[in-house]
TrEMBL record:
Domain Methyltransferase: 74-214
Keywords: Methyltransferase, Transferase, Ubiquinone
The protein, known as: Ubiquinone/menaquinone biosynthesis C-methyltransferase UbiE
Enzyme Commission number(s): 2.1.1.163
Length: 250
């Protein structure tokens, strides 16, 4: 296995797609990051809600945290969920935008996208379009989305600046992005980021919090702010935190 520093961005993306494809098809296997219902409940997804949903929706849950309390999706809006996984967050956004709204679920892993489609179809959610693509090349027109959400995709993306540019591009003027993400308290020594498994532990590709916010400003977002900051099972390294961040397009 190549050292992490020798992997190209495309190699990292292919490995991410492969690993999360396995989370979709074999969620009961052991991964070096938290997966499933117990983790979803630990970050605030209520057990009564999960009881009402297909097991396929929560058994492959792998988010960074839970942004739901902060996502202000409104009836009739267009929402894009980056790294939609098995569709848990997307289902909840569907309840907020209603049948007059429009939803896009994007994921790099085709098996995960297939699973999300199956889950939402089983629940009668029809106003969703599915995008098999990386977050740094979103196949949507400029100025077409009211809200872009995500739950832990930036640290897994090798080109975070490209993702931020794409989010700004597809957002309408005055649109916003609200997402949960792993950030760092400070720079880590390089020996902590040695192999691809460190990428999946959410430290190999995570940014220092201030660096993350400054990059958002540089890519056309006004007043990026941390709405919540804390620790959970995803923040295994002492330097990592889960942040819920909001930023508006200028």
């Amino acid at each position: 296995m190549k050292p992490l520093a020798e992997l190209s961005g495309e190699e990292i993306k292919c490995t991410v797609a492969e690993r999360y494809g396995l989370v979709a098809t074999t969620p009961g296997e052991k991964f070096n990051f938290p997966v499933g219902r117990k983790f979803a409940e630990s970050v605030g997804y209520e057990s009564e809600l999960l009881d009402r949903l297909p097991a396929g929706m929560w058994e492959s849950f792998t988010g960074a945290g839970n942004p739901q309390a902060f996502v202000d999706a409104k009836s009739g809006e267009t929402v894009l969920d980056l790294g939609c996984g098995a569709g848990l967050d997307l289902y909840l956004y569907a309840q907020k935008v209603g049948p007059s709204g429009r939803l896009f679920g994007l994921d790099l892993a085709q098996p995960m996208l297939d699973k999300a489609r199956s889950n939402l179809t089983a629940l009668g959610i029809e106003n969703v379009e599915w995008l098999h693509a990386p977050a740094d090349a979103i196949p949507l027109p400029d100025n077409s989305v009211d809200l872009v959400t995500a739950n832990g995709i930036y640290n897994l993306s090798p080109d975070k600046d490209a993702v931020m540019r794409e989010v700004a591009r597809v957002l309408k003027p005055g649109g916003r992005t609200i997402f949960a993400e792993i950030v760092l308290k400070g720079e880590l020594p390089q020996d902590v980021r040695r192999e691809i498994n460190d990428w999946f532990r959410c430290i190999g590709g995570a940014l220092v919090q201030d660096d993350f916010l400054n990059r958002m400003k540089a890519h056309g977002f006004s007043n990026p702010q941390v709405l919540w900051l804390g620790r959970n099972a995803r923040t295994g390294h002492e330097a990592s935190l889960c942040a819920v961040i909001r930023a508006d397009k200028k």
